[in-house]
Amino acid sequence: AYGAEAKDEGLRGHELKATLFGEKGAKLELGTIKEVSGNFEGFGAKTGFATGQITMSPIEISAGGAQAKVADVEIKDIKLTSPKYTDGKGTDVKLDSANVTAVHIKDVVAKFGEVTDKDGKKSQGMTNLDISGLKFDFIGAKGFEYTGKTTISSSESKTKTIKAEKAELSELVFESLTHDFNTHITKLNANLKKTSVTGFMASFGETISGKTSQTELFGNIEAGSMHADLTLTGTKAYGEDWTSVDGLFELTDSKGLGLTNMRVVHKKATEEKLELGVLDPSKTGGFDLTGLKVRFAPNGTMYVEFDELVGTNLKLKELKAGGATVEIPLVKLKKAAVGMQGQAPKQAFDVLGATLKELEVQGIKVTYEVDRSAPSAPGKPGAAADPWKLDALSTMSGNLKLYVTDAKWNIDADVSVPIRQGSIDFDEVEIEHLFPDSAMGGDHKGIYIDGLGLSGLLFRSHKYEQENMPGLIPETVEFDGENTYIDDRGSLNLRVFLESLLNEPSSPSAGGKKPKTLEELNQINLSGEVTLGEDVLGTSKNNVTLSGRNVGKNRISISGMRLGDNLELRMPEFQASKANFELLGKAGETGQINANITLAVTGLGSGPDASGHLKFTVTLMLVDGVVRDIKFGNVALASEAALRAQPVPPKEK
Predict the structure, then answer these.
(1) Which of 93, 143, 172, 260 could staple 286 via S-S, CB 3.0–4.6 A?
(2) DSSP for residue 122
(3) Strand, coil or helix: 641
């Protein structure tokens, strides 16, 4: 080997020969070498190796030995045994074994002279290497493992581990490959026809102030053709070795890249865990990505575009008791542009800005079990940090119908509740049953029912008690000098009332007080239809603005035979003109949203389960839906030009 660092241990060959010819031995002909084997160690690498037949055109030596050129080289049946590499700074790579069926090399030019390494030391060695054509027919590898660690600051670090049981690459062709050993610049233009990786695992961890979040990805990878045109520059930044990347990587055929039999586990710094896996094990599940283009910039940023990312047969669940489960038969993300950073030292990985033309979903099912008996966590006093806004309820209208079986008094009742402009006028509520009908109203104690058709207080019972209830306009009581009578039973503004419930400051559970059973809900049948207004629903940070009321959008059909057993709300034509959201600490927005939504609540009136807890289940079904024109973060940075204009980390010689 050339240079003081490298050494060849036990190099062996069969049918080796060399012939010098030409003026002053300017050419060296090795002929055909049947096989070569041995061990290599140097530059942080160590491996055993063996080859089959090697055929090489004469080596042309010129410029007084400062340049060597070979027109053609073919090496067959290359095998590497237990290759390893370490940089001594936290990056390690190892393989159980690797093999290459054949390597074809065209027009290799090597130049020699004085070389300055990355630490400034000078020596004699190869200064430039230029290869005009390099083709690997087939590469196979087993037992691949990469580990790396990057320290961002004294309290923040990133770790990365990548493993694969087996990897196969077909027809890897470098149209050109050059390296300058003084400037530490490598340029390559390469194409790869096909990739297959089985038993793939990638783990990415980030530690901040002693708390670690980690994402693990498992699966198999199949990819069609891809292309890279890159410039890699070895340098230092913030005292750390760093290879900056500039150029393009892209998937170049319709097959794209597929990830199957996949599983993703994300552990938050709070120890909470999420798992994304296959929904139906009898079917293929995973992601297919097409039209991917990644443009790297020397400042450590990346501009990522893709035509479509399709997820099929997936399931997401929280790994905790009663955690939510999300079934995802189909989700499509179309025409994305993403600006990212995180390649350079001291750069935390971050999505700076992104745009997505369309998000389409089908058959999404979210299931969440609520344990009413579970102790509530102590809350922070004061108003909600992100208060709810239910402005769309201000113009809500419709009619609800309840049929109540009153087991206590053996009286059944039909209750009609009209809703107009977001309010319930208690004078319009009808409670019909045997004997004189009852009346509903509101006073300073809450919402009541007066029985037996009497307007006085003798048979009054409060069904919902709260002093000075928000949104409640209490009854008007008149006295004519002899009698007291109710002139107006009052009304309830649903927006104000529900906002107050949602925004009420949280507090610890009251001394472990057990919740009441809601078995009386099993005596109620509920039906009806309401239409929401064209306004905001949600919180100040996460909300939708409803639209399309004049064409029949946002009508909610409500049904509940035995309300405590099953309540179902259907909104087949949900429409919002826009939405706002917050994700990863960044704001986002969307264009129009259309969806077919069903919400079901089951078991609300059930008794305690085997553990003595009162539980019910909430299920949200998104039959189909489309979200258009999604924007996230600083959208101005979702462009290649804007990313390249970002500051470059200071480099050191």
Answers:
(1) 260
(2) E
(3) helix
Give the residue among 556, 403, 598, 418 at the shortest CA–CA distance from 492.
Answer: 418
pLDDT reported for residue 139: 97
Of 112-121, 262-271, 309-318, 510-519, the poorest mean pLDDT is in: 510-519
| C-alpha dihedral, 589 to 590 to 595 to 601, nearest 10° | 0
Strand partners, 257: 223, 289
Structural contact between residues 82 and 72, judged by C-beta atoms closer than 8 angstroms:
no
Cα dihedral 3, 243, 650, 301, rounded to 10, equals 170
Pairing label, strands 27-29, 555-560: unpaired
Q: How far apart are CA 442 and CA 455, in angstroms?
A: 13
Both tokens of residue 645?
């204009």
Collect all residues with Cβ–Cβ distance below 8 Å to 397 and sequence separation of at least 6: 419, 420, 421, 422, 530, 531
In this structure, are residues 482 and 462 in contact, taking their beta carbons and an 8 Å threshold?
no
Q: How far is CA 355 from the centre of its chain?
A: 15
- Give the Cα separation of 249 and 195 in Å (integer): 15
DSSP letter string, 378-400: PPPSSS-SS-EE-GGGTT-EEEE
Cβ-contact 225, 192 below 8 angstroms = yes
d(CA 337, CA 636): 11
Q: Where are the beta strands (DSSP E) in 57-184?
A: 59-62, 67-86, 92-94, 97-116, 122-153, 156-180
Q: Which residues pair with 394 in a beta bridge?
A: none
Backbone torsions φ then ψ of 284, nearest 5 degrees = -70, 135
Q: Which of the two residues, 396 and 388, has the higher pLDDT score?
A: 396
Strand partners, 74: 55, 104
User: What is the spatial distance between Cα 421 and Cα 394, in angstroms, rounded to a whole number?
Assistant: 6
Best CA proximity match to 601, nearest among 575, 619, 624: 619
Q: Are strands 35-42 and 446-450 parallel, antiparallel or unpaired?
A: unpaired
Interatomic CA distance for residues 566 and 525, integer angstroms: 10
255 pLDDT tier (thresholds 50, 70, 90):
confident
Mean pLDDT computed over 625-642: 96
Backbone angles phi, psi at 494, to 5 degrees: -65, -35
Q: Strand 446-450's sheet: what is its strand order? A: 439-443, 446-450, 460-465
At 288, the pLDDT band (50, 70, 90 cuts) reads very high
**In the 3-class helix/strand/coil scheme, how is 478-505 assigned residue by residue?**
EECCCCEEEEECCEEEHHHHHHHHHHCC
SS3 call for 413:
strand
Strands 555-560 and 566-583: antiparallel
Residue with tokens 């063996």: 50
Task: Classify 408 as helix, strand or coil.
Answer: coil
Cα 163 from Cα 143, distance rounded (Å): 7
Q: What are the b/e assignments for 144-172, b being 16+ CB within 10 Å? A: bebbeebbbeeeebbbebbebebbebbeb
